[in-house]
């Protein structure tokens, strides 16, 4: 079984919607972190200070074929109209993996059997 790491970076206010979309698409767990980002166009506050807002970083280890489905679900939340995206979502191949919950692997296997 091959795995991918899905990384999603979204505005904090879209975090729950991204979590819900990922869960509905088949993700069974994730790690959430807070972050800050600097975009191409800096936003200014009243006092001339720059503020980009808080971002949520979501990390998910997924079975490779499931990762594309989850990516598309999150992309729909971040970029519903296809114009201006409010975040970033990508997958990276996982070469070596240790410590994954055995029950999670069983769920991936069941989903693969069900989908094929």
TrEMBL record:
Gene3D superfamilies cross-referenced by the UniProt entry: 3.30.70.120
Which positions are tagged coiled coil?
Answer: none
Under the heading SUPFAM superfamilies, the entry gives: GlnB-like
| Organism listed in the record | Billgrantia montanilacus
Q: Which GO terms describe its molecular function?
A: enzyme regulator activity
Superkingdom as given in the UniProt entry: Bacteria
Q: Which GO terms describe its biological process?
A: regulation of nitrogen utilization
Pfam families recorded: P-II (PF00543)
Task: Please report the name of this protein according to its UniProt entry.
Answer: Transcriptional regulator
